[in-house]
Design goal:
heterodimer; A: 56 residues; mainly alpha; 0% strand; extended; B: alpha/beta; ten-stranded mixed sheet; 35% helix; 13% strand
Chain lengths: 56, 397
């Protein structure tokens, strides 16, 4: 039995051409928080590990 | 019985010979009490395939607890870890009593080099003032399991006698949010119930002003599939409704871990949750009797699924790092079935949550049984994030 599901064509968003400083500094939206996080990960490229989902 | 992947088939020696190295454990889940004062209908410990709790002592003994602390310290020193996290879990961990948690906290901070972050995941029924004082004194963060509004929560999270727990849980959360304890409030865990209204569920959680929320899919696999009714991806649709409510808010009202990880992956980052993505899973569970286990929700798959056959009294955590079930969760794409590896969203979904991939007779090398739901959710999130990023370029922001 095929237990997979054909998904939509999806691509990761390209943020390399987006000047982020103004948005990151001024907004409190979900996307602004997400962009602050990705910028922090780029600046501090430590190994990322996955944690326990049954504790938040 | 047919060979099951990875226990019977994963060539760990071959991986090592080809240069793969394990990632040391950073997170230790201690089952300090194996019984619970609730009998939730979806509980993977008591209501699913594994009945190992019947053979397990109820409380972690002082000897096992001390040896666990010694082993964590040994592991941290050996691998030069400057920070570890220890989660008290169950059953219901608060049933172990405040003195056990205080002793564990003190021993860990005395023995382990570097920072020890402590947390407890609880149903909150025992979260009275005396317990809160001990948790506060020992800097133990508190996460509470709450399934949304009263009707939804009490449909699942009931005592053995059938009494709902929503009211008592909410009273405990109010105590937790009162100074000086409020700084301990870590978040709310909610199991998805597709019978409930998704936005109502989210907003019922939001009432408690949690710093973060996570939504968990009910445990299921290819041999025990989820109930879907007539819909093809109801859990995906449910989560999309919550995502749109959360993402569309002009300010971020709380963190939602599952969505944050998907958004971060959509932006090219990496996941910090075992539920999604391809990051190596660096956690190990110590059961009340000292047995080392892979993630305990594997108990939803089959009896003994979480077992490694190792014991904290006779084995180091390094011994567990070479166990096939642990290794399988640290090798990323190599753990996935070919159809996953060639899928458009694999770097985001990562094959989905490992216990959900199980099929009796062949093991865990399958897509998640929630694959249609994950594909729909991830596709939706990617499209929204990508559109907003394109919009930012247009704004010249």
């Amino acid at each position: 039995m095929n237990d997979t599901f054909a998904g939509p064509e999806t691509h990761i968003a390209d943020i390399t051409q987006v000047p982020l400083d103004e948005l990151i500094a001024s907004e409190d939206s979900v996307l602004a928080h997400a962009l602050r996080r990705i910028r922090s990960e780029i600046d501090n490229p430590d190994e990322v590990i996955a944690g326990f989902q049954n504790f938040v | 019985m047919a060979d099951e992947w990875p226990v019977d088939c994963l060539d760990v020696d071959g991986l090592v010979a080809n240069g793969w190295r394990p990632v040391p454990f950073h997170q230790f889940v201690l089952k300090v009490h194996s019984r619970c004062d609730l009998a939730c209908d979806y509980c993977y410990v008591y209501r699913m395939a594994d009945h190992g709790w019947l053979d397990t002592r109820s409380t972690m003994s002082p000897e096992v607890l001390h040896q666990t602390c010694v082993r964590i310290a040994e592991h941290a020193r050996r691998h030069g870890l400057d920070r570890v996290e220890v989660v008290f879990h169950g059953g219901e961990p608060l049933l172990a009593g405040p003195s056990v948690l205080a002793e564990a906290a003190a021993t860990l901070r005395r023995l382990v080099p570097g920072t020890v972050d402590l947390g407890v995941q609880t149903n909150a029924l025992r979260l009275d003032d005396s317990m809160l004082r001990v948790l506060e004194a020992n800097d133990i963060r508190v996460a509470v399991s709450l399934d949304g509004a009263e009707g939804t929560h009490d449909r699942h999270r009931r005592s053995a006698g059938g009494r709902g727990s929503h009211q008592r849980t909410c009273e405990a959360i109010r105590r937790l949010r009162t100074p000086p304890y409020h700084r301990l409030f870590s978040g709310l865990l909610c199991v998805v119930d597709v019978e409930a209204d998704p936005v109502d569920t989210y907003e019922a959680l939001l009432v408690h002003e949690p710093p973060r929320i996570d939504f968990l899919l009910p445990h299921a696999n290819w041999s025990i599939p989820p109930r879907r009714g007539d819909a093809d991806a109801p859990h995906g649709d449910w989560l999309i409704a919550v995502f749109d409510r959360w993402y569309g808010s002009p300010r971020q009202e709380t963190e939602i871990r599952l969505f944050q990880e998907i958004v971060n992956l959509a932006l090219g980052g990496r996941s910090r949750s075992e539920a999604i993505g391809l990051s190596p899973v660096a956690l190990v569970v110590v059961d009340t009797d000292g047995q080392l286990e892979q993630v305990d929700s594997l108990r939803s798959a089959y009896h003994g699924a979480a077992s490694t056959g190792l014991d904290v009294r006779t084995h180091s955590f390094d011994d567990a790092l070479s166990h096939p079930s642990i290794v399988a969760r640290q090798i990323g794409l190599d753990a996935l079935v070919d159809s996953c590896r060639s899928c458009d969203v694999v770097r985001v979904c990562g094959g989905g949550y490992y216990p959900h991939r199980y099929r009796e007779g062949s093991g865990f090398r399958h897509a998640s049984v929630y694959c249609p739901d994950l594909v729909r959710l991830i596709g939706h999130v990617l499209r929204r994030v990508r559109a907003d990023v394109v919009g930012l370029r247009g704004r010249g922001c």
